[in-house]
Amino acid sequence: MTASSSVQQAREALGKRLREIRKDSGLTARELAARAGWHESKCSRIENGRTGPSDDDLRVWTLHCGAQEQTADLIATARNIDGAYVEWRRLERSGLRRAQESVLPVWERTRHFRAYSSWLIPGPLQTRAYIEALLRAIRDRRALPDDLDEAVQVRVDKQRILHEGPRRFAVLLEESVLRHGIGGATAMAGQLGHLLSIATLPNVSLGVIPLGADRTALWPVEDFWIFDHSQVNVELVSAFLTITQPHEIGMYARTFADLADLAVYGAPARALITAAIDSLG
């Protein structure tokens, strides 16, 4: 199953719903296509989730099936599906700042954050130097418009949520994250020292999964954030994935709990961070 499978499943579920609406109207797929002025295969592609319907497609579908009272809900459902899988090139077409700002609403309303990372220190725990090095590399690799300073400031400003309101943060890092050099030795030393400081906050639980942990049952997975019980965000190589299906959120929650069992906390975690600092020389 690919990381975007939830989007395909949602499209198939919408297609099934549209098939039921068509059948309830007494129309065959060929008859509906003829009335709508479509190629006769279009109904089949939509009903099987191979083609996502546009707003106009849904208006025409419900019009000819006598189900116009469902139009608004169907359009909202389709738009949510389209927004679940967003390619970076679409999200970042005007620069990095927009991508940083796009997640602010969910961050503002969330009270319980769970984050797992196998590659990078998570955003709220990053230093300015680490953020700048990271975003500069993304800008250059993807040849994006240069709004680096603004994007860095948005991410820095977002870190206020660590100190505002009754928010709880549970963060799990693979030990390898502590060794991935971002921004050079000086930036990494500052970042790891900052991590030690953040770990002392009463609303932050920081776990580190040692390199020597037994991974027979559960190996490293893609980086993800769980926001309360309502949403999971996953950063892929090509896209930003938003998961809202309850059963999939449950899968990530169980994976997080299993990963948490592999981690060390408190003094053992601090020892791993300190060892990473020492390795910088």
From TrEMBL:
Sequence ranges assigned to domain HTH cro/C1-type in this UniProt record: 18-58
Stretches assigned to coiled coil: none
Protein name listed in UniProt: Helix-turn-helix transcriptional regulator
CDD domains: HTH_XRE
Pfam families named in the record: DUF5753, HTH_31
